[in-house]
Amino acid sequence: MVRLEQGLLLSLSGEALQASLYLVGNPLVAREVLGHDPAGALYAPFRVAVFADDLGTHISYDKPSTVFASLGSASVDQIAVDLDAKIAAVAERVCRDSQ
Question: Taking Cα atoms as reference points, which of 5, 3, 26, 34 lies closest to residue 90?
Fold first, then answer.
């Protein structure tokens, strides 16, 4: 996992922001995707943003089925749909447990 503190970068312009971008993924799944289409390296690992504003803390992420669809591979599409469900479940659990 890689973490980029976007808030720190934006604070250089004088705007304070609590925001981090993460690159996350499972190397075994990435290997499977790249085995079907090496261009999948554009989207694996996928991006997750966590940020805070006046309304609270939020999580936003690239939906694998959306980004991998551009590859035009039925095999990758199936992996991506499975990832959609797994990622949504983790995001929901994290949000629920943080309340």
Answer: 26
